Amino acid sequence: MTVHRSLSRTIRNKFIAGLVIVIPIVITVKALWWLFTYVDSLAAPLALRILGRPIPGIGFVITIAVVMLAGTLFSSGPLQRMLHGLEELTSRMHPDRGVLLLGAHVGSFEVLRVAAAERPDVKVRVVLDTQKTPALTELLHALNPEIGRNVIDASRPGTEIVLALSEALAEGALATLLADRARENEATIDADFFGAPAPFPTAPFLLGAILKVPIVLCLGMYRGGNRYDLHFEALADELVLPRREREAALREVVQRYATRLEHHVRQDPYNWFNWHDFWNPEGRGVEAGATTRAAGGARRGDAVVRSAG
What we know:
Low-confidence stretches: 76-81, 288-309
Mean pLDDT: 75
Helix content: 40-55%
Strand content: 15-25%
Radius of gyration: 25 Å
Shape: globular
Number of helices: 10
Largest sheet: 7 strands, mixed
Distance between the termini: 70 Å
Structural class: alpha/beta
């Protein structure tokens, strides 16, 4: 029985793998043939009218030129501005080992969920507290139920989240979560952020170290309308935290994340969604010096905008 199941599984997997290879080839060939036929039907009569004689192969030449132009636009033209550092991500993706993408409250994290629905061949699992954004979550799920299946609810117990992430990453998925704000009673480490120490959660980075996967910064910067720029930057190929130098190594990677986050906030300050004292989220000392602290927070906020001007 076990041998029969194993043989059936092998045949099924080979058949599916064959389909995955053959179907795109067939679709590509049919698409090219349709494009060639269409272009040739337009170009051949036009050449005959202008030059007074037919030009053999003109449809083929124009078809190749159109395909090359599309490739050029995507690799070095306007379309490239939509994806920055894509190679930083794709070079670290493997079928049996995923990538941990760390985002922030900068731009739109939701755009990654929508992008996941548009690319079913790439598995994306988003860790998101659905209780904090119930309206947006309900809207996206209503528009496309597939989006909901890509979410790992951060309001679940920590062990369940870790297990869900581990399973997703073992399947080669892109697992994404926000790493710039700590939840209540969550462990943090201070990193320099706009000239002052700010607490960043350690859990996202510890997860990357435990699961032994690459860690990549991911930000979706809003450009108006339905346009976004996705940025990918590698933070660590495999985060190693030696026992004796654990805190120093952890502080180093958190600071790297904070530094790159500061860079992008300076570039696009109005993409930073922050409505609290980022440098003092617990409000320590507010009663004793509320005016001074508020003024200090305002000065830092003004500095962010001025530095981008």
